[in-house]
Design goal:
By secondary structure, this protein is an alpha+beta fold. It is 30% helix and 35% strand. Strands 1, 7, 8, 9, 10 and 11 form a six-stranded antiparallel beta sheet that branches. Strands 2-3-6-4-5 form a five-stranded antiparallel beta sheet, with helices on both faces. Helix 2 runs parallel beside helix 3. The protein is elongated and about 75 Å long.
């Protein structure tokens, strides 16, 4: 069996973190984004917010596979800020995220190596505080059951989902109750067997579309 494809994770919400190194303030902000344009808007907003800072260096990775990346040293010596920040995002295997590190110069020069460490540490420590959102390819499975049986099958799916890397979808109620679950491809047969056992074979799952779904860590 072909192993399921893996995708870079992202973060659930913005995080801000500050550290002081030889009197310079480094304020790291990491935020989830949906596109390059979204990341650019975050950078522009933070430049405006921290307008009096010496530098607002940035790095971003976007795209489902993390195939779009960009960084800026914003006046720091070339290669000492944006690229180290980007390398942190890459090492963490993240996408759809932008990092901005704002520096208020404290009067003491750090040297190239010191700058690399400062900017990369600022982003790394900010990400340590972030909640991750994993992404995986899941297949939609729906089952139609009588209204009277909806509660029983809903409980079955709620118990089943966390043990098989799946996630619940939105139920729909009409003449029948339609319950939805998003399932890793390798677990579909197991789900079908468990539903068959619970219904004496009277409920047959319907396999639907496949999509990449965000799954909180």
């Amino acid at each position: 069996m072909t192993p399921p494809r893996t995708y870079p994770a992202t973060i659930a919400a913005p995080v801000e973190h500050e550290l002081i190194i030889k009197k310079s303030r480094f304020i790291a902000t990491v935020e989830p984004v949906t596109s390059v344009e979204d990341a650019d808007a975050v950078i522009a907003r933070l430049r405006k917010q921290w307008w009096d800072a010496r530098h607002n260096c940035s790095a971003m990775v976007t795209g489902l596979l993390g195939d779009q990346a960009r960084s800026s040293d914003d006046g720091e010596p070339s290669g000492t800020a944006g690229v180290p920040m980007l390398e942190v995002l890459r090492r963490r295997e993240l996408t759809d995220v932008v990092a901005v590190v704002t520096r208020y110069f404290g009067g003491v020069k750090l040297g190239a190596g010191g700058l690399v460490r400062a900017y990369s540490t600022a982003v790394s420590e900010a990400l340590d505080l972030a909640s991750l959102v994993h992404r995986q390819s899941l297949t939609q499975v729906t089952i139609d059951v009588a209204q009277a049986d909806a509660g029983r099958f809903d409980n079955l799916l709620r118990d089943w989902v966390p043990r098989h890397g799946a996630t619940l979808g939105e139920p729909r109620y009409a003449a029948l109750a339609t319950l939805e679950v998003w399932v890793p491809a390798q677990e579909i047969d197991r789900l079908a067997d468990d539903i068959a056992a619970a219904s004496a074979g009277s409920v047959v799952p319907v396999i639907g579309v496949e999509r990449v779904v965000d799954v909180p860590a």
